[in-house]
């Protein structure tokens, strides 16, 4: 497929109203007369067996709009939506093949192959994913691209009696890869973080992480064993024993839980372990924020709310979707360096940890979170320099949004409203719950009260300064100066917020994050990184 206008027709799956994504269709005619965002294969990372299921394409009414677009083509559309094998067209040196389930269209960056007999799919996938196929491809395709025509030239073995064994191996490999893919938020099939497994039996996050690492190791080694067995079968079938060996290096085991693949580079084992632990805890915090926003819930697995305009959210609350850990009432979470609000994001993260793992282990678990974040996500401080709660707050206020942008490919679902460089006020707003009341509520519930709190604190500090000794008076003076700058910034932000609140801005999620994020001027952080334009 060539859409002719990717910015118009392609989206990452998390950008739109999830209820408008049509999955598991069997033919383009299934979208006739309907609005339909359809899953799309579009290249991606070098990954084998399963994954890279990030994109959707607007194929409403059988792709009528695309068909009318200049330079567009729905080539081979009759073969879309079948169980297939796909690969990245621009990765000849790493010809990695993945299984694709029913219901996907295919971009030009993702050539695909259907088996002439459905029962042969896994056998053919095993062949294409083998080291023997990669070896043969290197003679057929000498450029940077691997096209369908190149793959079709791979000769089948003269005799091959291991089809059933290969199919069994491939199904196991797909299962391992799929379980790994669905363990992370970028997957539409994400259920919950791995650290929430076994919480009924283990209350220590540290022990849970150790148990999870052992499970990951088993998956990595099992995938390595199965891939090597698959390679061996095809090396023997093609009589390539003198040219190839079946061994697969650890960094070629394309599971996200495998740090040798995930991070690579010239890093030591200790560095890789530290990065994995830090990222795993950061992912837990991201899920926690999802639970606070109502995107996820401790009471239900997978995606709970990703509609539009906060519609039907109240009904979910009333039916008990968030009984164990209540979602935020408005999808606005204060994110400040200092604890100005009792229910700010840092406080709610602590509440989440207490709810899941209990008050008895709360301090131990908060310390594990803080220590893990300091391994790689944020810089550590001197021992005793800050409490675990302060470390978590520091991560949330300085690093979380950067990580969020990376996870969501610069198309964030939690938007960072910021008063500016002084960080007088910042908050996250959940894209799918934004509505016309969001900005007025942000102003009345948070910004206006904060203006009063800051003003009062400055007055109290001035009284203290008058009675303080020289050194203490100087310290207080610096605090007054800092707060005064923040107050000035906050007043300017409040003026802008009122202006945009009066505009009653509406979002059309079909337009995508890039367009919608640009509607709020300088109220939002990282506008240029997300929209490609400077804030107006």
UniProtKB/TrEMBL annotation:
Keyword vocabulary terms for this entry: Methyltransferase, Transferase
Protein name (Swiss-Prot/TrEMBL): Putative type II restriction enzyme methylase subunit
Single GO term (MF): methyltransferase activity
Organism: Salmonella enterica subsp. enterica serovar Uganda str. R8-3404
Biological process, per Gene Ontology: methylation
InterPro entries listed in its UniProt record: BREX_1_PglX
């Amino acid at each position: 497929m060539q859409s002719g206008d990717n910015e118009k027709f392609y989206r990452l799956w998390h950008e739109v109203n999830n209820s408008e994504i049509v999955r598991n269709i069997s033919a383009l005619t299934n979208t006739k007369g309907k609005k339909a965002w359809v899953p799309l294969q579009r290249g991606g990372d070098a990954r084998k067996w399963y994954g890279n299921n990030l994109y959707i394409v607007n194929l409403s009414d059988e792709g009528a709009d695309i068909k009318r677009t200049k330079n567009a083509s729905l080539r081979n559309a009759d073969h879309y939506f079948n169980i297939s094998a796909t690969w990245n067209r621009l990765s000849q040196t790493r010809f990695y093949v993945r299984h694709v389930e029913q219901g996907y269209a295919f971009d030009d960056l993702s050539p695909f192959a259907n088996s002439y007999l459905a029962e042969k799919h896994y056998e053919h996938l095993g062949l294409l994913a083998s080291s023997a196929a990669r070896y043969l491809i290197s003679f057929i395709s000498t450029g940077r691209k691997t096209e369908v025509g190149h793959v079709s030239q791979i000769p089948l073995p003269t005799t091959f009696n291991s089809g059933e064994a290969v199919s069994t191996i491939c199904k196991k490999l797909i299962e391992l890869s799929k379980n790994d893919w669905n363990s992370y938020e970028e997957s539409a099939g994400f259920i919950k973080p791995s650290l929430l497994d076994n919480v009924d039996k283990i209350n220590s996050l540290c022990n849970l992480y150790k148990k999870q690492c052992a499970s990951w190791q088993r998956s990595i080694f099992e995938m390595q064993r199965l891939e090597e067995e698959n390679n061996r079968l095809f090396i023997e079938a093609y009589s390539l024993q003198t040219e190839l060996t079946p061994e697969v290096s650890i960094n070629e085991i394309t599971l996200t839980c495998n740090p040798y693949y995930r991070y690579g580079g010239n890093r030591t084992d200790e560095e890789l372990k530290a990065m994995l632990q830090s990222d795993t805890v950061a992912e837990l915090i991201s899920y926690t924020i999802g639970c606070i926003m109502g995107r996820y819930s401790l009471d239900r697995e997978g995606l709970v709310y990703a509609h539009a305009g906060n519609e039907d959210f109240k009904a979910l609350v009333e039916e008990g979707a968030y009984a164990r850990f209540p979602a935020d009432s408005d999808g606005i979470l204060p994110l400040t360096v200092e604890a100005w609000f009792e229910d700010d994001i840092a406080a709610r993260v602590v509440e989440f940890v207490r709810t899941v793992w209990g008050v008895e282990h709360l301090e131990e678990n908060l310390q594990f979170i803080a220590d893990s974040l300091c391994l790689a996500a944020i810089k550590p401080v001197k021992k005793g320099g800050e409490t675990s709660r302060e470390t978590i707050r520091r991560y949330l206020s300085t690093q979380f949004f950067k990580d969020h942008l990376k996870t969501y490919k610069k198309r964030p679902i939690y938007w960072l409203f910021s008063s500016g460089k002084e960080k007088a006020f910042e908050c996250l707003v959940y894209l799918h719950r934004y509505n016309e009341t969001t900005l007025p509520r942000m102003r009345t519930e948070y910004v206006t009260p904060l203006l009063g709190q800051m003003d009062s604190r400055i007055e109290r500090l001035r009284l203290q300064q008058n009675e303080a000794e020289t050194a203490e008076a100087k310290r207080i003076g610096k605090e007054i100066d800092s707060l005064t700058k923040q107050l000035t910034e906050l007043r300017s932000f409040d003026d802008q917020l009122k202006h945009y609140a009066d505009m009653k801005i509406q979002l059309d999620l079909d337009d995508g994050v890039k367009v919608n994020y640009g509607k709020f001027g300088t109220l939002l952080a990282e506008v240029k990184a997300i929209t490609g334009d400077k804030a107006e």
